[in-house]
Design goal:
Length: 277
């Protein structure tokens, strides 16, 4: 936020979540009031927010997985993440708070009913950082999804250790229409997983892959190389993991140190940053 506020082209900076504070700012400016340049955003009660107005955009969403039928829509049922991955935290906690906040299942189902009625959606992505962190919520969602007559296939993000600890939950999700998953394997090397504070082992990555394949789920596996101190041999462990898995979508990215994250501070301290603006 300091970097953004340093540019005179921005009149105000809203920190964190903006739905409440940004609309308050607009109303204040309309009334001729002066407002602070940097405004701490208020965190809303998620069920109190209106559903996204998709009519504002004259574009259609498209799924990463090519065989998911159109129209395709995406929703978010929570904000925040309970984990400590150093390529992401604490930046996300600064935005959303230290704890995960969930919409109720009933509120999500109400939005899906609206999307079914208005757009006749045929497939769905739930874009939560880690849907399976709250197993009770997922079970309730699966039950209500079926009870309300939804048969559309859906996709979500999962975490390897969750899959390993609760394969029966994956089975319940599959029975409720889960077709594919996004999963951040990140690395095939344990030292790199520890550096990222991923909370998973390389063995759990392999085991999660086997479980997901047992349920015939398509997998987008996400990997990162180029972490600070990573060696060629350690990159090789990740390449071996990718080539050993039959992934429908392997996604290999180069590490980017984002401001506000632990690894950014590490790179800054070690003078590894090549871009500072």
């Amino acid at each position: 936020p300091e970097e953004v506020a340093a540019h005179s082209c921005f009149d105000h900076v809203v920190l964190g979540e903006g739905e409440v504070s940004f609309t308050d700012l607009i109303e204040a400016l309309k009334c001729g009031k002066s407002e602070k340049r940097i405004i701490q955003g208020k965190r809303p009660e998620l069920d109190s927010l209106p559903f996204a107005d998709r009519d504002l955009f004259d574009t259609q969403e498209f799924p990463f997985f090519k065989d998911l039928p159109l129209p395709f829509v995406t929703i978010i049922s929570s904000r925040g993440c309970p984990y400590q991955c150093t390529f992401c935290q604490p930046a996300e906690k600064i935005v959303f708070g230290a704890h995960v906040r969930k919409r109720t299942v009933g509120h999500v189902i109400a939005e899906l009913k609206l999307l079914r009625e208005k757009y006749k959606f045929q497939s769905l992505m739930i874009h939560d950082d880690c849907l399976t962190a709250d197993k009770a919520w997922v079970r309730e969602f699966c039950r209500e999804y079926k009870l309300n007559g939804f048969t559309q296939p859906w996709v979500c993000q999962v975490k390897a250790n969750h899959v390993c600890s609760a394969p029966e939950l994956i089975g319940e999700m599959k029975a409720a229409g889960l077709r594919a998953v996004h999963i951040g394997f990140e690395s095939g090397n344990q030292r790199m997983l520890d550096l990222m504070k991923k909370g998973c082992t390389a063995e759990q990555n392999y085991e999660a892959y086997r479980i997901l394949k047992q349920f015939s789920l398509e997998i987008q596996g996400m990997f990162i190389i180029g972490l600070p101190t990573e060696t060629k041999e350690e990159v090789g462990d990740t390449i071996r993991m990718i080539t050993s898995m039959q992934l429908e979508r392997p996604v290999l990215t180069f590490f980017t140190p984002y401001p506000g994250t632990e690894l950014y501070e590490y790179c800054k301290e070690k003078r590894l940053l090549t871009i500072t603006d």
